[in-house]
Each structure stands twice: as structure tokens, then as C-alpha cells.
Recover the amino acids of this structure.
């Protein structure tokens, strides 16, 4: 080991390696490089589990990649899966920027989705489709915001840990929407679901003939908006200040409780839109228990994105890929897609461990030497 | 009205409360040990789930539910060790790594269940724990109904909670644990190995939560079902806070949650007509209300969630 490294550090290739390692060790770049390694490591562990369980790794991952990018249709499926994750990841990231951990995106997206469906169905054909869609989106965001405001207030005023309160509200949100659909909005039939939303009052397809809707464009717009608010407005600056050091922010005159509630409201509104995007752009109706855990995957997305709005974009695409790929893995290779849940958990653990990152970066000794403080 | 009162004050609710408090109280005590040592343990949920899975696995392999219980404790402990490595050694954010662990546990148990038993949803049925009856007590009126006949894990829980309280507040080990979470620098100065104490506490919390999981899959039922912990780990965390990081306080809070859960189930089988979805919200809403009310008076360990680096050379 030692001799090889010694040779390399003297040889002509050393300069290239050193420069590459130095570039890799730069703060922003090292984050991305490390996140990529975390994902690869998680997939490797997944492969070990697949092999240990007696399945073919090649069969599994070939189907995974084919399901994710194999055709325009599959690619559109990946984008469709990424759409709610874009919102939920952004939702979790915004709260994190204020030092809050919103584990309640799941419940918030349920109430948001139902609110959108109700608005479209109640307004009826007399109102133009565009207006209905816009009002439905507003309603979805509002419903999510209301569900998140409670934990925000309890955190700010009473100190109740938002992790527990938001998780408990997940159950409340899911049970409440189920109750409302069963009692007031149920379409006759065996499934607890609302009637279909009329064609004119849906989020239209982005690529005709596929399942990706304009919801993903809305998601990107939300990323742009949040990035702008956080970086270019004083409110956004204050939210981040509270997240970095609440005591210092308070000393500097920031209304800390107010900013905590605001961050949770923003987070909840975005999570609510995740539900709206699925209900209005994918399912075209509210189906009880429709989410396969978009809110929880949003946590993985945010952690992988290191809570940067722009980072949410590639992270959501990656997890969208894992989900759509995981489905075809289950369908064609008969390998349970729950493996992808496991992969997500591993990614969160790896990315959350900074000491692991520095261990990885220190392994390329060149990186440690040239990238240090220079 | 009479009907409602009959349902609420049914003595069977008390029996059911003790029973249903078992997994929550065990995990809450786990949370108390972990957090008293300074490590936030959001991963209790995943530890319960892993315990429930390993319990069924152990019973499935050996045919003995007691070996299943051992498996559950070891499985929960392994999850505890995983969290400990990430939160202590690798300095990961405690809350984020705890949530990561929960997602990992959900994926791992769901995956293994399908690999082993080819069924998504529930495992095969295995040998569960038999009920245990205390000879004289069971014949006493009222007390016999409440405490006379239970799963052995329920009695074990009551004994363990008492032992846990003794260890935490009456022994040098407990003092070290509390010191690590209150003032790690001071603990270090007097020669306590802070990280070792934290490892011990977090792994112990995993074992306790795993035992709670075994109650779900070997005593309450005799099979594993996907995500069968259903939020109990988070309730245990709330119970721990409400119980002021004290095992006996945690037990009291667990009784409160279990009572609403028992009531919820009792109402569903009673003539009172209320929508099940609404009734099922009761325990969750209560958790929120209790938490909002309890935290005002509560004071967590001072160094909770912090990463401690010993000043001494390694």
C-alpha cells in the first residue's frame, strides 16, 4: 500500500490526481462527492443483501435501471415519482434551515391532497378549469400549512419537540382524511376514494402519453422560490439565523418564535402541495392511504440535499429513480421493492455522519494534503 | 350516557391498559437510559420493530418463543449499537440518524419478511408465549382481574422498570450515566469514560425496546406484520419526556397512552357508534396534548444531543 502511494506521489500522474483530489475536497464539491459515495455504498449494501437472499444482483439492478431510464415512458415515470419528493424534500429542507425537523410531511400531504380534491369537486363545472386548479393548489398548500402550524406553535411557545408532534399528526392526518372520504366523499365501490376529478381541472401531462404532469414544473418553481426567499429576503435570512443559533438570533432582535412558526408553515404548505401534485396530476382523485411514504422519503431527499433547495432537485430525481426502478425490479425480477426503503435508510445514516465523510476524504491522502486550508 | 360510562369504567380497560403499556414502558425506559447519557434516541421505533421481527424469527427457527425473546433483545441491541456508532463515534446528528435507523429498520424487516416467508404484510404464525397466572392473586376479586393473568413479559416489564429505576438512581453506574448526559466534561475529569457509558446506555435502550417488540409479536400476537410498531417508539419518547426521564415516571405516562388505546379498542366493540378512524386518533392526539403540557415543566439532560470529544489523548 505504502509503496504504491509513494510512487504515485512522485510520478507525473501525481499532479493530476492531486489536483482532482484537491478539487474534490473543496467544501461544496466534497459534499456532492460524498453524497454520491454514500448512495453508491448503500446500493452496494443492497446488492449484498440481494445476493445473500438468493436473488441475482445483475437481474435486480438491470431491472432497476431499465425501470428508471429504459424508455421515455419509464423516464417519465421516474419524473412522476420524483414530483412529490421534490415537494416533500423541499418541505423538510426548509424546516431544517430553521433548525426544525418536520417529520410530518406525510400527514401534511394527505390533508393537502384532500383539500385540493375537495375544492375541484365542490366548485363544479361553472368555474373555469384554470381557476379551479389554482384554487385547489392554494387550498392544498393552506391545509398542509395549518397542520404544520400546530407543531410550530407548540415548539416555539411550549418547547414541545416537533419530531414527536409532527409524527403524531401524521397519524391524525391520515385517519382524518380517511374518515372524511369514507363519510362524505366516497365514490360508490369497494375502494375508499373520491370520484375522478374532471379532465379540465387536473394538472395536465407534461409529456403527452406519459404519466409525468406539470406538477414537476411547479416543484422546480417551488425550489426557485424557496431558494430566493432563503437567500435574498430578510425573512429568509432570519429563518436561517434561527437555525444556526437561536440564542444569537434572539439577541440580534429576531422574533424567534415567529420565525419558527413561519418556517413550519412554509414547510407544511410545500408538503401540502406534494399531495396536491399527486392527487391532481397523477391519480386524478384522492385515494385513502395513497402515499407510499413520500413524506418520509422527503427526509432522505433533504438529508441527501444537505437542506439546500437546489440540492433537492438531484436528490429527488435519484429517489424517484429508486422508486420507479424498484417497482419494475419487483414486477419483473420479483425482488421486493422494500429493499429501496432500506437503501434510503442507509443513505440517511451515511450522509448524516460527517466523521464518515472526513474519513472518506482523508483516505485519498492527496486530498488531505492539498485540500486542507489552502 | 350510562352506556358511555360503562365502557369507560370497565375494569377490563385497566387490565388492557397494563397489557398495552408493556411495549411502550419498556421502550420509554430505554429512552430514559439513552437520553440520560446524552444521546437522543429517535430510533426507538426501529428498535421495537426489529425486536418484533427478530422475536418471530427466533421462535420460527427454534420453535421456542423464549429463544425468540432472546433474539428480540439481541436484535434491538444491535440496532442500538448501530445508532451508538453513528451518533457517538461518527458524530452524526442524533435525530437525523435516529430517523435514518427507523427507515432502515422498516425496509430491512419488510424485505427479510418477504425473503423468508414470501408474503408482504404478515409473517407465518409461530409459537407465541403462553399466558402466566399468579396462583393466589388470580383468585382475589378486582386485583385478580387486573394483575392475575398476563403474559410473562408484562410481569417482566414491571420488574425491569423497578430494577431500571434502582440502577439509574441508586447505583454508581446510574450516577455515571446521568453525569455523562448532564456534564460530560466533569464526568471526564473524574475519570468516567463518557463514550463507554453512552455506548452502554444506547445499546441497553435497544435491548429494552427490542423486548418491547417481542411483546408485540410473541405475546400480543404470534406473528410479525409490516410496520407493526405503528408509532409506539415515538409514543415511548413522549412517555419518557412526560415521565421526566425516569423509568417509573415513563411507566405512568405509558399507562396513560395505553389507557386511551384500550378505550379506543373497547369503544370499537361497544354499542357506542363513533367512526373508527376518529376513535383511533385518540392516543395520537393525547400524545401531542401531553407533550405540549408536560414540556413546560420538564428539564432534559443538559448535554442532550451534544457530541462530546474527550480532551485527553486517545
Amino acid at each position: 500500500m505504502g509503496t504504491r502511494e509513494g510512487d504515485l506521489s512522485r510520478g507525473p500522474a501525481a499532479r493530476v490526481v492531486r489536483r482532482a483530489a484537491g478539487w474534490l475536497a473543496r467544501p461544496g464539491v466534497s459534499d456532492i462527492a460524498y453524497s454520491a459515495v454514500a448512495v453508491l455504498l448503500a446500493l452496494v449494501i443492497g446488492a449484498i443483501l440481494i445476493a445473500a437472499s438468493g436473488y441475482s444482483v445483475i437481474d435486480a439492478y438491470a431491472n432497476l435501471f431499465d425501470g428508471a431510464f429504459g424508455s421515455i415512458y419509464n423516464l417519465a415515470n421516474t419524473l412522476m415519482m420524483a414530483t412529490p419528493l421534490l415537494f416533500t424534500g423541499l418541505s423538510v429542507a426548509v424546516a431544517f434551515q430553521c433548525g426544525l425537523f418536520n417529520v410530518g410531511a406525510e400527514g401534511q400531504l394527505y390533508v393537502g391532497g384532500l383539500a385540493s380534491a375537495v375544492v375541484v369537486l365542490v366548485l363544479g363545472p361553472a368555474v373555469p378549469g384554470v381557476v379551479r386548479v389554482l384554487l385547489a393548489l392554494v387550498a392544498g398548500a393552506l391545509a398542509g400549512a395549518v397542520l404544520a402550524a400546530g407543531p410550530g406553535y407548540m415548539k416555539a411557545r411550549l418547547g414541545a419537540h416537533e419530531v414527536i408532534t409532527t409524527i403524531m399528526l401524521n397519524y391524525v392526518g391520515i385517519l382524518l382524511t380517511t374518515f372524511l372520504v369514507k363519510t362524505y366523499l366516497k365514490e360508490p365501490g369497494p375502494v375508499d376514494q373520491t370520484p375522478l376529478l374532471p379532465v379540465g381541472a387536473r394538472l395536465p401531462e407534461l409529456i403527452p402519453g406519459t404519466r409525468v404532469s406539470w406538477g414537476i414544473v411547479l416543484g422546480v418553481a417551488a425550489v426557485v422560490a424557496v431558494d430566493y426567499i432563503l437567500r435574498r429576503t430578510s425573512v429568509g435570512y432570519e429563518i436561517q439565523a434561527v437555525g444556526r443559533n437561536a440564542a444569537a438570533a434572539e439577541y440580534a432582535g429576531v422574533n424567534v418564535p415567529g420565525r419558527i412558526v413561519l418556517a413550519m408553515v412554509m414547510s407544511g404548505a410545500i408538503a401540502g402541495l406534494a399531495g396536491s401534485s399527486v392527487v391532481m396530476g397523477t391519480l386524478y382523485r384522492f385515494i385513502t392511504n395513497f402515499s407510499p411514504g413520500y413524506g418520509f422519503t422527503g427526509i432522505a431527499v433533504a438529508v441527501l440535499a444537505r437542506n439546500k433547495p437546489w440540492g433537492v432537485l438531484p436528490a429527488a430525481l435519484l429517489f424517484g429513480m429508486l422508486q420507479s426502478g424498484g417497482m419494475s425490479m419487483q414486477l419483473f425480477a420479483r425482488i421486493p421493492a422494500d429493499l429501496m426503503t432500506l437503501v434510503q435508510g442507509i443513505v440517511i445514516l451515511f450522509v448524516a455522519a460527517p466523521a464518515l465523510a472526513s474519513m472518506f476524504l482523508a483516505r485519498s491522502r492527496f486530498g488531505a494534503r492539498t485540500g486542507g486550508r489552502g | 350516557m350510562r352506556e358511555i360510562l360503562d365502557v369507560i369504567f370497565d375494569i377490563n380497560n385497566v387490565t388492557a391498559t397494563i397489557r398495552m403499556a408493556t411495549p411502550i414502558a419498556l421502550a420509554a425506559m430505554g429512552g430514559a437510559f439513552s437520553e440520560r447519557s446524552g444521546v437522543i434516541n429517535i430510533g426507538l421505533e426501529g428498535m421495537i420493530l426489529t425486536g418484533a421481527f427478530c422475536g418471530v424469527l427466533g421462535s420460527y427457527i427454534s420453535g421456542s418463543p423464549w429463544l425468540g425473546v432472546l433474539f428480540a433483545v439481541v436484535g434491538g441491541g444491535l440496532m442500538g449499537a448501530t445508532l451508538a456508532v453513528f451518533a457517538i463515534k461518527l458524530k452524526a446528528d442524533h435525530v437525523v440518524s435516529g430517523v435514518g435507523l427507523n427507515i432502515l429498520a422498516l425496509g430491512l424487516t419488510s424485505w427479510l419478511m418477504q425473503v423468508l416467508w414470501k408474503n408482504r404484510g404478515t409473517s407465518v404464525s409461530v409459537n407465541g408465549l403462553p399466558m402466566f397466572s399468579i396462583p393466589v392473586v388470580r383468585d382475589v376479586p378486582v386485583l385478580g382481574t387486573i394483575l392475575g393473568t398476563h403474559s410473562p413479559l408484562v410481569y417482566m416489564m414491571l420488574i425491569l422498570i423497578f430494577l431500571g429505576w434502582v440502577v439509574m438512581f441508586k447505583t454508581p453506574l446510574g450516577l455515571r450515566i446521568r453525569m455523562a448526559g448532564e456534564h460530560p466534561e466533569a464526568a471526564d475529569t473524574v475519570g468516567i469514560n463518557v463514550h463507554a457509558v453512552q455506548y452502554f446506555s444506547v445499546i441497553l435502550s435497544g435491548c429494552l425496546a427490542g423486548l418491547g417488540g417481542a411483546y408485540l409479536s410473541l405475546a400480543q400476537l404470534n406473528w410479525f406484520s409490516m410496520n407493526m410498531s405503528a408509532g409506539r417508539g415515538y409514543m415511548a419518547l413522549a412517555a419518557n419526556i412526560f415521565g421526566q426521564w425516569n423509568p417509573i415516571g415513563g411507566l405512568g405516562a405509558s399507562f396513560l397512552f395505553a389507557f386511551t388505546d384500550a378505550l379506543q379498542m373497547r369503544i370499537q366493540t361497544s354499542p357506542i357508534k363513533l367512526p373508527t378512524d376518529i376513535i383511533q386518533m385518540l392516543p395520537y392526539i393525547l400524545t401531542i396534548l401531553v407533550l405540549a403540557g408536560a414540556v413546560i415543566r420538564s428539564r432534559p439532560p443538559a448535554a442532550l444531543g451534544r457530541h462530546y470529544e474527550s480532551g485527553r489523548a486517545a
Chain B touches chain A through 45 residues (CB under 8 Å). Residues 194-220 of chain B form the longest helix (27 residues).
